[in-house]
Design a protein that fits this description.
Blueprint: E1 5-6, H1 18-24, E2 27-34, E3 37-44, E4 50-56, E5 62-64, E6 84-87, E7 90-94, E8 101-104, E9 111-112, E10 119-127, E11 132-139, E12 148-155, E13 169-173, E14 177-183, E15 189-195, E16 206-212, E17 218-226, E18 232-237, E19 243-247, E20 254-258, E21 263-267, E22 285-289, E23 292-299, E24 302-308, E25 315-318, E26 324-332, E27 335-342, E28 345-353, E29 359-364, E30 379-385, E31 389-396, E32 403-404, E33 413-417, H2 431-437, E34 442-447, H3 456-459, H4 469-483, E35 492-497, H5 499-510, E36 516-520, H6 526-531, H7 540-544, H8 552-557, E37 571-576, H9 584-596, E38 601-606, H10 616-634
Parallel strand pairs: 1-32, 33-34, 33-35, 35-36, 36-37, 37-38
Antiparallel strand pairs: 2-3, 3-4, 4-5, 6-7, 7-8, 8-9, 10-11, 11-12, 12-13, 14-15, 15-16, 16-17, 18-19, 19-20, 20-21, 22-23, 23-24, 24-25, 26-27, 27-28, 28-29, 30-31, 31-34
Helix pairs in contact: 1-10, 4-5
Length: 658
């Protein structure tokens, strides 16, 4: 057996480099089926984050559908999703740069359908009977304070002049938000979801159904389910014309159906069959036929596939090696198509034989070859937290077959706080996590109170408590791991992006537990965030913090910018300069204030980036910059040189690596 090198935690050389991560990793989403072909969307950091519609033909050949120069990504709600639709090889898609809808026939260039105005579309369905698309519209051209959201009908073909001037027919408007327009198999009825401020879709939505007239209008609309305190997800018509949907009315997102008179439960489990609707076009179940539904089920942070017989409601597990499923699933002819990963397998587009469980991997999100010995396998942990409650997390121990630490040393710990905050993190293999563990860090991923995947009650722990519950759970999870002897309590860092970045800054200003912090496009001033964000999230903070402006004092109290004198730990901030969700002035305010006070701070802005980094060189820079920052703060040398990050006011820097 080869002898291991003795070297301090953090200084281990790893084959999982930032270059390897950005070169080999793509984002996967939005699966659709068309005959025997399967389509999906790839987000490619190597192409400046461009979203490409990709097809695998029945003969196994894989090819790009949308050509270079087009980016199939909509900005409805800013987060997008549901950016394309296809039928018999023709693709309709939203193009990111101009937000126009395009039609692309096989072998031809895309042609614009909609005018060159700031009008955005998403979540399209094809109304073949009336030769039109039905889509969500977000109109930013009206001159009003907020965009106007509606459901519209649009022609499927360009105008004869090719000018793309279709303004469409408005089917319904008046509420703040709409999503999920779904046409019955006969084309006679349309179902959709709607909700109003201050709710987010996971707080409360309504499911409506209306008959369609011959000329395409809506008639006799009727509310089927939902309300201000019931979240409905993914209305879907069965092949025989029954309306199914997911509701959290029993605390768990479970499956129901409506046959014109009353709502009937189909799947009742203490587990989640739904997910927060951050994107359009998400799905967690699909009809393989009118006799079988395939569902993604998640409990205690782990996912699995089951089939359901709609008649007798009998469930049957589909055995696969996967434990994490992205909310995109389609099914046909005895197979389910989804995106899945596990602790040893990166997410991939897969086809699952529902009878045998045999998996065909269609497209992996990464082809980086990493020997299994370098992979850290996470343990799901439950930890005690405030109020006698239990929190959830995944802990990744440091693993590298070539190294061991000096006797008696315990590893530094990075606590990762996910964004949202109504989100969650799975245990699927992510080379971004392994980047740290293979260098000798413990890595703790916290699904704090407020996270999805553990029921509505758990999700609502954050109501009115953002900046408190998430901070407490991050601290208590880390304390639990340190208490088990798995990490060095004097070298604990906290990192996160967006809402996770807010928790980072809030933790550093409300506790002395963390010894370093890294905020990626995080919020530092809740008052600025309230007045300088987009429509979809413009009242999200009122559920998480308090009513505005009545409880403005609470916003100030929980804003890091007003408590900078409490910060004792060095901070690094990463920020996209075109971010509309967390504008750059959030980071710049806190950087300027920390610099003025003589506190250790580093700032890394990125031109051309929005909310979340999509460009390969910037993903690499943020990873290596954060590693360099920790090496200076915690005092260890790096195995390989990286580009230094200037750190202002760091009083006693460690020896810098050469």
């Amino acid at each position: 057996m080869e002898q291991k090198t003795i070297s301090p935690y953090g200084s281990w050389r790893s084959p999982i480099t930032a270059d390897a991560i950005v070169a080999g990793v793509i984002g996967l989403g939005q699966i659709q089926l068309d005959g025997d072909d399967i389509y999906w969307v790839e987000q490619r950091p190597s192409e400046a984050g461009r979203n490409v519609v990709v097809r695998r033909r029945a003969d196994g050949t894989i090819e790009d559908v949308t050509p270079p120069g087009y980016n199939a990504r909509t900005r409805v709600h800013e987060y997008g999703g549901g950016a394309y639709l296809l039928r018999q090889g023709t693709v309709w898609f939203a193009n990111f740069t101009d937000q126009r809808l395009y039609r692309q026939e096989p072998g031809r260039a895309p042609v614009a359908l909609t005018p060159p105005k700031d009008i955005r579309h998403a979540d399209m369905v094809l109304d073949e009977r009336r030769s039109r698309l039905i889509a969500i519209r977000e109109d930013h051209s009206t001159g009003s304070t907020w965009a106007v959201n509606s459901i519209v009908g649009l022609t499927t073909t360009p105008s004869p002049s090719g000018g793309g001037q279709d303004e469409g027919l408005t089917l319904i408007e008046g509420n703040d938000f709409y999503s999920s327009p779904r046409l019955s198999p006969s084309g006679s009825h349309l179902a959709w979801l709607t909700w109003n401020h201050p709710n987010m879709p996971w707080d409360g939505t309504e499911l409506w159904v209306a008959a369609l007239t011959d000329d395409g209008g809506l008639m006799t609309p009727r509310k089927v389910a939902g309300g201000e305190r019931e979240s409905i997800f993914q209305p879907t018509w069965s092949p025989d014309g029954v309306l199914y949907f997911v509701s959290d009315r029993t605390n768990w997102w479970n499956l129901y159906r409506w046959q014109g008179q009353e709502v009937e439960p189909v799947v009742q489990l203490p587990a989640e069959l739904g997910t927060p609707s951050w994107l359009f076009g998400m799905s967690t179940y699909a009809f393989e036929s009118e006799h079988r539904i395939v569902c993604q089920v998640r409990s205690n942070g782990l996912g699995r596939l089951v089939t359901v017989d709609p008649q007798d409601k009998r469930l049957q597990n589909v055995d696969t090696p996967y434990t994490a499923f992205a909310p995109f699933i389609q099914a046909r002819a005895g197979k389910a198509f989804t995106i899945a990963g596990s602790p040893t397998q990166m997410p991939a587009v897969i086809a699952v034989d529902l009878k045998t469980g045999r998996v065909d991997v269609i497209r992996r999100s990464g082809e980086v070859a990493v020997a299994p010995g370098y992979l850290s396998i996470p343990a799901a942990i439950e930890f005690p937290t405030e109020g006698g409650l239990t929190g959830h997390a995944f802990f990744y121990p440091p693993v590298n077959p070539d190294y061991e630490a000096p006797a008696g040393e315990r590893p530094p710990l990075i606590v990762y706080v996910h964004g949202g905050p109504t989100g969650s993190v799975s245990n699927a293999l992510d080379l971004g996590d392994q980047f740290w563990t293979s260098r000798g860090f413990g890595y703790l991923v916290v699904n704090y109170g407020g996270s999805a995947g553990y029921g509505r009650d758990y999700r609502q722990r954050l109501n009115g408590q953002w900046g408190i519950v998430d901070v407490n759970d991050s601290v208590n999870a880390a304390r639990y791991v340190v208490g088990l002897g798995l990490a060095d309590g004097n070298r604990v860092a906290i990192t996160g992006g967006s809402a996770g970045g807010y928790t980072v800054l809030r933790a550093l200003t409300s506790t002395d537990f963390f010894k370093a912090g890294a905020s990626h496009f995080g919020i530092s001033d809740l008052e600025v965030f309230h007045t300088d964000t987009h429509k979809f999230e413009s009242m999200y903070d009122q559920g998480l913090i308090g009513r505005w402006p009545e409880e403005r004092s609470v916003y100030r109290e929980r804003s890091a910018i007003h408590s900078l004198d409490r910060i004792r730990a060095p901070v690094i901030l990463f920020q996209g300069l075109e971010d509309k969700i967390v504008p750059p002035n959030q980071a710049e305010l806190i950087v300027a204030a920390l610099r003025a006070r003589g506190l250790p701070v580093a700032y890394v802005p990125f031109e051309g980036e929005q909310h979340g980094f999509r460009i390969a060189k910037n993903i690499k820079r943020s990873l290596e910059g954060e590693l360099y920052f920790y090496s200076q703060v915690f005092g260890f040398s790096l195995a390989d040189p990286v580009e230094p990050v200037p750190i202002d006011n760091l009083k006693q820097p460690a020896d810098r690596p050469h």
